[in-house]
Amino acid sequence: VGIESTVVRLKEDPALELEILRPGAITAQQLEDALRDEFPGIKLSRKVSGASPGHLEAHYQPELPLLLAPGPSSPQATKEIADQYGVSEDQIYTLNLAKDARLAARQLYHELHQFNAQPKGLIVFWKGAEWNSPDWAGLVDRLERAATYKLK
After folding, report:
1. What is the CB neighbour count within 10 angstroms for residue 94?
2. β-strand 17-22 against 43-46: which pairing, if any?
3. Which of 1, 32, 47, 65 could form a disulfide with 19 if both were Cys (CB 3.0 to 4.6 A apart)?
4. Straight-line distance from the first to the last Cα atom of the chain, in angstroms, rounded to the nearest whole number
5. CB pairs under 8 A, 24+ apart, for 21-26?
6. Confidence class for position 100, pLDDT limits 50, 70, 90
7. Which of helix, strand or coil describes residue 136?
8. How many Cα atoms sit within 13 Å of 137 on the Cβ side?
9. pLDDT grade for 54, boundaries at 50, 70 and 90
10. For residues 110, 59, 124 and 86, what is the CA-based torsion angle, rounded to 10 degrees?
11. Cα–Cα distance between 53 and 55 in angstroms, integer?
């Protein structure tokens, strides 16, 4: 089990276009590679639409707040976050996911639910280089929706 499916919609007017309504385990590149020979010139685009489930702004939020922070983590960064968000350093819970997108997708919801057993605190996901990987598009989508706070 991992993140939900990639949801797409095919449009034919004025030209053949495949709209990615919700990124998932199948990447845009994989879709393009699979369709290129059969449908030359097909355009792929990313659309936000109510036609796909999971588009509420806070759709995937855990009970504890989740902060997306630029990585890597450090004791100083953890202290600053604890001070800024009014929690003690021992109430900062790091969301650790595998670097491999498929493994991380399997871990995501399990890990978030584990943190819900804590009575108080803040979950922090430290964004690494994988954040910009096309393989991580579905995970980034779910993490962005789950996040209560986002640091640039």
Report:
1. 13
2. parallel
3. 47
4. 30
5. 21/47, 21/48, 21/49, 21/51, 21/52, 22/52, 22/53, 22/54, 22/55, 22/138, 22/141, 23/137, 23/138, 23/140, 23/141, 24/138, 25/101, 25/102, 25/105, 25/138
6. very high
7. helix
8. 17
9. low
10. -130
11. 6
CA proximity to 89, closest of 78, 97, 98, 99? 78
Are the beta carbons of 70 and 127 closer than 8 angstroms? yes
- Strand segments, DSSP code E, in the chain are 7-11, 17-22, 43-46, 66-70, 92-94, 122-127, 149-150
**Encoded tokens for 97:** 């996911």
Chain position carrying tokens 């797409």: 8
pTM score, whole prediction: 0.74
CA 147 from chain center: how many Å? 9
